[in-house]
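lol so apparently i was supposed to do this last week
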Amino acid sequence: MIIVVRPGATEEQVNEILEQLEMHGLTAHISEGTERLIIGVIGDKSRLSADSLEVLPAVEKLVPIMESYKLASKAFRPEGTSFDIKNVTLGGKELVIMAGPCAVESEEQVESVAAKLRACGAKFLRGGAYKPRSSPYAFQGLEKEGLQILRRVADRHDLLVTSEITSENDIEYAADYLDMIQIGARNAQNFRLLSAVGKSGIPVLLKRGIAETIDEWLGSAEYIMSEGNYKIALCERGIRTFETATRSTLDISAVPVLKGKTHLPVIVDPSHAAGKAQYVAPLSLAAIAAGADGLIIEVHPNPKAALSDAAQQLTPEAFKTLTDEIRAMSVILGRTYPE
Ligand code: PEP
Ligand code: MN
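anyway here it is w/ manganese (II) ion bound
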């Protein structure tokens, strides 16, 4: 259930609502919109009658939420969410691009692309340090050292850092290196990990599970939000279908569907969906046209020599061409992209 607070209600009157909820063992999550204050109510509501809330002067109306996710639902923040990470806004008018190699292989490798990414308008540096590989014999990533490399390179080039964390044990020190924790597709329903990143308060890029429905995905977001961490962007990265021409099938429909179901910003990863570099640009443009708030794209200084995902990584030159197209397209869509 959500409680829509009457405009002009005093702080004292709002506190009356919060006290009622607390008395009945319910948790209140407050969403302060531009026009409305909304209170998301979580817990067993059977002992609290709607009447006892409706009589309170600050209550405008009570809206039941039928979905299993509440805080992630559009009703909780109808105007949409945008949030800042340092000087970058996610979910705002400006399209945000995160770019970098699939995996951090060495400081030289990341350093050799960082300035080019920044010059093309990218705001985040990406790069895997804990690589969730299908084979235990494949390159597993540089782990903590990889995060340290990302931080050093990003700081030299005025970039923010996002990278995947695969274990609760790594969250504590990851906070020293990351601006946004990436939860990968393979961990999208690792609920203990989701709750732990929720408790950490660090912004989260939540990938869609390989076989996760949109409602299940929003359930994953709810695990993070229910711990009080509302800084989440959802990342569509392709789903498993019968089609084999691409690595996964990019679910473009997910973008407008999410825009109707949730207030959270939506990012698209065309690289892992396509699995092939030649499809990354058309899928990127399609994602932006469908309403995505940004993209996460793999770029490697020498894709052929990459230790992982060699076929799908763009060269810095191809990335430049793509970002020029994105900039041109942003104008038509009423969005902006850095010069
Ligand atoms: C990644 O972005 O590094 C990655 C492994 O992607 P996904 O979890 O979507 O497969
Ligand atoms: Mn990859």
